[in-house]
Amino acid sequence: MNKLDAKENAAPVENDWGSRSHVHTLLLMAVTVAGIYFCFQLAAPFIPAFTWALVLTVLFAPLNRRLEKKIKRPNLTAAICVLSAALIVVVPSAFVAQRILGEAANGAETIKTMIQSGEWQRILDDHPRLAPAGNWIEQQIDLPGIFNNAATWLTSTAASFVHGSVLQLIGVVLVFYMLFYFLRDRNAMLESVRSLSPLSAADMKRMFDAISDTVRATVYGTFAVSIIQGTLGGLMFWWLGLPSPVLWGVVMALLAVVPVLGAFIIWIPAAIYLLLDGSEGKALLLTIWGAVVVGGIDNLLYPMLVGSRLKMHTIIAFVSIVGGLIVFGPSGLILGPVMFTVTRILLEIWSSQNKSEPAEDKTK
């Protein structure tokens, strides 16, 4: 037998792609990827509930740890934290949501009445420069019909919200169902993630700390500041006698969550409306309040509540939040910044490993 025949009949070495071990590895990888994909498809409907349960877990974990030191029963401590979260989050949210829908219906009804009674036209007649634009809008858009439909829809939606829907109830129950197990079994879950991750224990701790800081910064910083801004704006609307102060206060709070946007998108048109209505003093007061107090709160409280936790440039924060809202819906407010944070940490780990490899090569 010559050397050529010997090479052809030789068993494949372990480094050959056609070897049994490599085929086995590729098959295992393909099956694993397929399994992960199908598991993700199964879990996709529960991503919002999972996200908010994770957020509440991060926020209530310190309380749970303190209770665990005093009460040596994990089920009881987790149940107490879940009940506390429900009282703090669900009850006020349900009340505010009901008021928002009611205020929105009243606001749409008020605007419809203004248009139908001719008050809209009176304001335009008092300001001839705006009359052409107002007349063009009336010719192009059926304003009474639009606001009539809006008022009807908002009224019916407010009535249905009082009774609640099955899907909303299931979503809330799922959040607190997951929250219970996240709090009770959080250490075991974190250890399972560490065991599956290729990263070192130090890198995983760094990752978990960054995610926790991002969630806390987003909730305590962004949400808290936006709630304060919306509350101050709504109180000024109420004091000046503007319609639907609760509705516009909540809208200002929601706009304040998104970087670059802010409460000024609401209070500036309101100040212009007061100016056109002949209330120059109220318009000036609303402008000063919005620019100095509502706008200044962001610059004062945001660094105090967030500090250096949320290490993102304004543009990156804007993309992460708005992109998260587009892709994931309301839960994207958290998922967007968290994904950017995880990616940043992974890139930093990758960069540090690349820098350490040449140094190791030089020492050899």
Q: Can you tell me the overall shape?
A: elongated
How would you classify the helix and strand content by structural class? mainly alpha
Helix content: over 70%
Strand residue content: under 5%
The largest pleated sheet is described as: none
Based on CA atoms alone, the radius of gyration comes out at 29 Å
**Structural domains: how many:** 2
What is the N-to-C succession of helices and strands?
HHHHHHHHHHHHHHH
Residue windows where pLDDT falls under 50 for at least 5 positions: none
End-to-end separation in angstroms reads 44 Å
Q: What count of helical segments does DSSP give?
A: 15
What's the average pLDDT?
A: 76
Total strands: 0
Overview of this protein structure:
The two termini are 44 Å apart. The protein has 15 helices and no strands. The mean pLDDT is 76. The protein is mostly helical. It has helices spanning 3-9, 20-43, 47-70, 74-117, 119-126, 131-140, 143-163, 166-184, 186-196, 201-240, 245-257, 264-276, 280-306, 314-328, 332-363. Helix 4 (74-117) runs antiparallel to helix 8 (166-184).
